[in-house]
Design brief:
single chain; Rossmann fold; 7-stranded mixed beta sheet
Length: 215
């Protein structure tokens, strides 16, 4: 297993990506083709920037990628179509992104893990639910998204909600994910808009910000 993991790390280094997680998004893109040339893409939990690199390649010079994380992202080597924001997404509204909705939202964010699989999964699903809550303001009707989530007791409810909000929503585990990892990626296409469901009942917010865990 370690040799397989090291092979992804070596490949990322050889290909110029900042982390092995780039290949998770590449594989999602090969299967689902979420991002097109000229798209506006929001990358959530973007540090260290490997998904941003892939997204920037896909949108090309006429597209835009906004990359947000609590952690700093090194701008060196990133193309001009990338805008970096060091912030908690809970503190941002649509004006932070120029007032325009996105074609695609991608999220590799995760809560800081505690060693408690049940609690980590619950917090991961809540982060994804909070992201979905913001889609009426952030994602265009007909838009797409993919988000990382830790499988667990709350995952089926998250998937069901995504299936209400989108024409298509499925779970997918890339080959480059560690075999022992409980991470799953929800891949959703065809956002129906903010009127697709009634308002969600408010739940306690996580005090930790929206950032990345590990890549």
């Amino acid at each position: 297993m370690k040799e397989v993991q090291d092979s992804w790390f070596r490949k990322a280094k050889a290909d110029g990506y900042r982390a092995r997680s780039a290949y998770k998004l590449i594989e999602i893109e090969e299967r689902s083709k979420l991002i097109r040339r000229g798209d506006r893409v929001l990358d959530v939990g973007a540090a260290p920037g490997s998904w941003t690199q892939v997204a920037a390649e896909r949108v090309g010079e006429k597209g835009i990628v906004f990359s947000v994380d609590l952690k700093p992202i090194d701008p060196q080597g990133l193309p001009k179509q990338v805008t970096l924001l060091r912030a908690d997404l809970r503190d941002l509204d649509a004006t932070a992104f120029g007032g325009l909705r996105f074609n695609v939202v991608i999220s590799d964010m995760a809560p800081d893990t505690t060693g408690d699989p049940f609690g980590d999964s619950v917090r991961s699903c809540l982060l994804c639910q909070e992201l979905l809550d913001r889609f009426p303001h952030w994602l265009r009707r007909g838009g797409h998204c993919t988000m990382k989530v830790f499988e667990g007791v709350d995952y089926p409810a998250l998937l069901r909600r995504a299936q209400v909000l989108f024409d298509e929503a499925k779970g997918f585990k890339p080959r480059s994910s560690r075999a022992e990892s409980v991470e799953m990626f929800l891949v959703c296409k065809g956002y129906k808009g903010g009127d697709a469901e009634p308002p969600r009942e408010e739940k306690p917010v996580i005090k930790r910000g929206w950032g990345t865990e590990s890549h």
